[in-house]
Amino acid sequence: MKSLNISLIGYGFMGRAHSNAFRKVRNFFPGKIQPVLKAVCGRDGVKAAEFAANWGYESVETDWRALIARKDIDLIDIAAPNNVHYEIALAAAKAGKMILCEKPLAMNPTEALAMTKAVEKAKIANMVWYNYRRIPAVTLAKQLIDEGRLGKIFHYRAKFLQDWTINADVPQGGPGTWRLDASIAGSGVTGDLLAHCIDTALWLNGGIDSVTAMTETFVKERQHSLTGKKQKVLIDDASAFLARFSNGSLATFESTRYACGHKALYTFEINGENGSIFWDLHDLHRLQWFDHKDGGLTRGWRSIHVTDGDQPYMKNWWVPGLAIGYEHSFVHQIADFLQGIESGRPAAPTFRDGLATDYVTDAVLKSAASGRWTNVKKA
Ligand code: SOE
Fold this sequence. Notes:
The protein has helices at residues 13-28, 45-55, 64-69, 85-94, 109-122, 136-146, 182-185, 189-205, 326-343, 351-370, and strands spanning 2-9, 33-41, 59-61, 75-78, 98-102, 126-129, 153-161, 208-216, 221-223, 230-232, 238-245, 250-256, 265-272, 275-280, 286-291, 302-305, 374-375. It is α/β, with parallel strands linked by helices. The longest helix is centred in the last third of the chain and has 20 residues, at 351-370. The chain binds alpha-L-sorbopyranose (SOE). Alpha-L-sorbopyranose is lined by residues 162, 192, 196, 264.
């Protein structure tokens, strides 16, 4: 067994999701490379030390540059806020470290392109944490599409709805609420939530050619949690767009943090000439499938409980019928990443795939600003 010395930058929600995956992966997905939790890095040394003790990291750093300079680190996992992805990734690529990066890849496509070029030039393994691809029901959707079970695709319909910023007293900036601060997050729901929908869509249905979008910021000012000052809100609270895919299908995408009652309702539906599929994150183990060929009085939507051993990833977990959850999508992603290193066939989404998503979110924001249909750059 070969060791892979991992270091994590950032110890928030995503740092926990990634750490859990590093720890569990070899218990459930055997392989030749063993992740070793070498170091965690965060600005607050006390919090970083607590995190290290809880998750089993061997050491703590408070300066990511010092971390990257360490000879005993093979891989840098960037789970820090969006505004530092670029600088860290460029330095890590220069040092020849493998890189995992939380989504979205960057604040804008200029940064994302430079990051993509840097990892490709350095020939280092790289991946963006778009975890929803690896929910077994979503992976099954990909299999059905690739087998041609849906036939020609006419429609793609996705939404990601939350409600946690409805209250105008929710601050912007600082730990926990940096996603509301445009200088840290880049954009609002477009880069945070629609980016997930777009990544899945590009994977399932191919490239997007053009979009027309609208965005809105419902609460115009919020207190900054670090300075205490009221500041203009510069992120998009809600974002919706129409898209034309290169395969001729039409799409609608919607995201908001103001859908009262919805906590993380990510859904997509795809309608093809031979059938349709529907998936819902709140019921993540089920894939709804309608087969147009089904005849007779019992025709209708089938609800597939994706837990059998021959369905994606499930043979590595429990016995048929027993469910897994959100955190397992991260375990699957790191299992595939390690397998990609072993086999020499890199796991997706790579930085170039993350760039493709950033090109779409950029076109969405530009279209919302101009009120015009906008072409999407190809990655
Ligand atoms: C935002 O609330 C958020 O945590 C996103 O940042 C994640 O990427 C998404 O998976 C869940 O919602």
